[in-house]
Amino acid sequence: MSDGWSFDGSIMTFAFPMLLFIVVAVGLYVLYTKPAAVPGHRAPSAERPVSYTAIPGTPTATEVAGIPASAPGDPAADDAAMAADGENTVPGENTVPGAR
Amino acid sequence: MKTPAAAFPAGAPGVLRPGPARRGTPASGSRRSAGAVARGLVALTKPRIIELLLVTTVPTMLLAQRGVPSVRLILVTLAGGTLAAGSANTINCYLDRDIDALMKRTARRPLVVGGHEAIRPGEALAWGIALGAGATALLGLMANWLAASLADAAILFYVFVYTLLLKRRSPANIVIGGAAGCFPVLVGWAAVKGTIAVPAIVLFAVIFLWTPPHFWALAMKFRDDYAAAGVPMLPVVATAAEVTRKIVWYSYAMVAATLALAPYAGWIYGAGALGLGGWFLAEAHRLHAQVARSGADPSADPGPRPLPMRLFHLSITYLTLLFVAVAVTALLPWGRW
Known about the structure:
Shape of chain A: rod-shaped
Strand content of chain A: under 5%
Helix content of chain A: 25-40%
Helix content of chain B: over 70%
Number of domains of chain B: 2
CATH class of the largest domain in chain B: Mainly Alpha
Distance between the termini of chain A: 103 Å
Oligomer: heterodimer
């Protein structure tokens, strides 16, 4: 029995689709792997949300004596800033107006 | 190989063929119940196919994130992907309603000429377009516009390249047109990262190369159906031996593509891809050997479970397990090299 193999059939159903796929894949790679080239692309925002609102005029972590400045986004810096703003303190301690 | 266009001078897609089976439109008589309309609208989206598309999306998102992305992003991407795939499938049903009536496998679809006519063609087209618009808005506004535009590209590719251009004209229809089914992995990756990267393209290649063995196995079983409808699927225009040889070629290319992801994904995935690939290749060779031995049409196999359908079902299990391996590797920190 003839198994029906033909060169043009193989071109049409194997070689051409594979070639087309390679062209499409390269096109996708060239167009969309660079964030700058993607229309409307936004860089991912900081994962740790801001959990407090700074009061204007109060010192920040870098301005409080004895507390080392930390990198932006460092949880330690956020905690230090909260402490400087009176958060995470024992209720009633240094928070009652006129206590000092 | 026969020239498909000469063998099957099919009419333009979507143009109804006159025939005795055609009956009046729904507007001509019976009232439709809301339940029947709702069931029809859901059936038009081909939920079983959507299910398989989504199986590939979530593991790709896990791999892109190297962990679990936000639940909100997963749900948005799955909902957007469901709407996009539903849109493409619905418009496909609208365009193919003439030939669907001629094939036993598709004769029960809601839109077929002479069918139960729960849905009017115009309603189906509007439903398909609305689903596509919903997918675009949902993905664009709640994930990102790259994911939305990739989903749109999949819809347009499926409708214009596969359904309208290739399906009734070329035996390579399912090979090239099958690329539409590869887009969910790109959508999933883009939803997480906002870009496309090499691993996403490799997964695209895996599904692209998986589609011909999967679909040709089905088409071998329903060869007479496709022949009656004038659709030149490869099993219709080529001998069974040539089809199974192409299945083996594509199977090897697919397994090579799956292994190409191993350096990125990790050894758990690599081991899984190797084992599953060996299983798939063994079954593909088994089918080819059976066809070569018998020299007969395997669709006429009198056995309890013909080998083409065995490979078809195996291909679904294979793809599901392969993407399970992707997900496991993405979630386990010790699964990497």
